[in-house]
Amino acid sequence: MRVRDIDWETWRAKDPATLVFVVKDSSILLIRKKRGLGAGKINAPGGRLEPGETPLEAAIRETQEEVCITPLDLSYAGVNLFQFLDGYSIHVHVFKARDFEGEPKETDEAAPLWAPVDRIPYEEMWEDDRLWIPLVLKGVPFSGRYVFDGETMLDHELDFDSMGG
Question: Is the N end or the C end of the chain the one with fewer CB atoms within 10 Å?
Fold first, then answer.
C-alpha cells in the first residue's frame, strides 16, 4: 500500500492524538515510552484525545500525565496522518512548547530525557520522525501522510511551507 492508494479526503483515523515537543535552551524534552504504541521507542509526550477534548487540551493533559509538567506557550506545529496495514490509523496534532512549569518526572507511561536539538536520537525513534521534527524546530508548518507496516514505514508524503510562514 502506498500513500496515493488512500483517499485522504474521506479517510478518518481511529484515534485522534497529540505530541508535544518542549524546546528550551537548545534542548528538546523527549520520552522513552514504556507502554502502548511505540513502547520502547523515544518520542515526545502525547496521546489520544478524550471525548469532547480539543487537541490543545489533550496535549496539555497528556504531557502532565506522562512527565508531570505543564507545557507553556504552545503553538500548533503541524499534523501527521498514519495508516497501518493492520487497519489501525492515527491522526496526530503536533505542538511545540517554548516553556513549561514543574519538573519532568518518570511515570508508569514514560521516562523523560533531554536531548540537544542538534543530537536528537532518531535511531531510537519512529522512522518518520527525522523527516518532520526538523520542521517543528524551525517553526515550519507541515502536513504528513504515512503508511506503516508495524514499525516499518512503507511510504510517505510530506507537505510544508518552505518559506517558513
Answer: C
The domains located in the chain, with CATH, are 13-160 (3.90.79.10)
Expressed in angstroms, the distance from the first to the final Cα of the chain is 32
Please state, as a whole number, how many other Cβ atoms lie within 10 Å of the Cβ of residue 98: 12
Kindly state the DSSP code that residue 50 receives in the 8-state scheme: P
Q: CA dihedral defined by 132, 106, 56, 93, rounded to 10 degrees?
A: 30
Q: What angle do CA 135, 140, 144 make, to 5 degrees?
A: 65
For residue 156, what is its C-alpha cell?
Answer: 510517505
List CB contacts of 58: < 8 A, sequence separation 6 or more. Answer: 16, 17, 18, 46, 47, 48, 49, 50, 93
The residue ranges of DSSP E strands in 49-105, in sequence order, are 69-84, 89-102
pLDDT of 165 higher than 50: no
